[in-house]
Amino acid sequence: MRKLFKIILMVAGVLILLVFLSVAFVFYKWEIDPSPCIPDIPQRIGKVSKTAKWIGGCDGGHWFDIVEILPDSNKYRIVIYFDYNGELYTDEYFEAVKKCTIKCDIEYNQASKILDEILFYSGYEIEMKSECYLVPVKKLDKFEKELREQWNCK
């Protein structure tokens, strides 16, 4: 009887250990080491121009087209399209700015360089790989104070 009890206890211990290890493995795979996301570039549909470049991730993105570069001003006319239907999101002039200093030292003089630097569009500003942002000129002129507060500038 005692021998049977010891065997049952050992089997229960092994099962508990296996359950614990399984839960730990699942947690590790989902939370600590998630599988890399490889985004699918959507088809160029709707009004998306042939020169536009899709930039985004697994959760979506936008089509960006640099239509005009104003020399010596750090201003660029950028057309942004929705990725899922190709419709126009915005067509406006953006200015390269740096958080808190509002002046960006980097001058982009080629559309391909600008497109290579873009990370995403927030619906308000274009986040770049450098410390600069592209902010709509009309919003920059009107909302510089709010931008500085949003960016926690002193």
Entry keywords:
154 residues; 2 domains; 3 helices; alpha+beta
Give a verbal description of the structure.
- By secondary structure, this protein is α+β, with helices and mostly antiparallel strands.
- The protein has two domains: 1-35; 53-150, no CATH class.
- It has helices at residues 2-32, 111-117, 137-150, and strands spanning 53-57, 60-70, 75-82, 88-98, 118-121, 126-128, 132-136.
What separation lies between the terminal Cα atoms?
77 Å
Query: What structural class do you assign from the helix and strand content?
Result: alpha+beta
Biggest pleated-sheet summary = 7 strands, antiparallel
How many separate helices?
Answer: 3
Strand content: 25-35%
The helicity comes to 25-40%
Kindly state the mean pLDDT as a whole number?
81
The number of E-state strands comes to: 7
Q: How do you describe this structure in short?
A:
The chain is built from three helices and seven strands, in the order H-E-E-E-E-H-E-E-E-H.
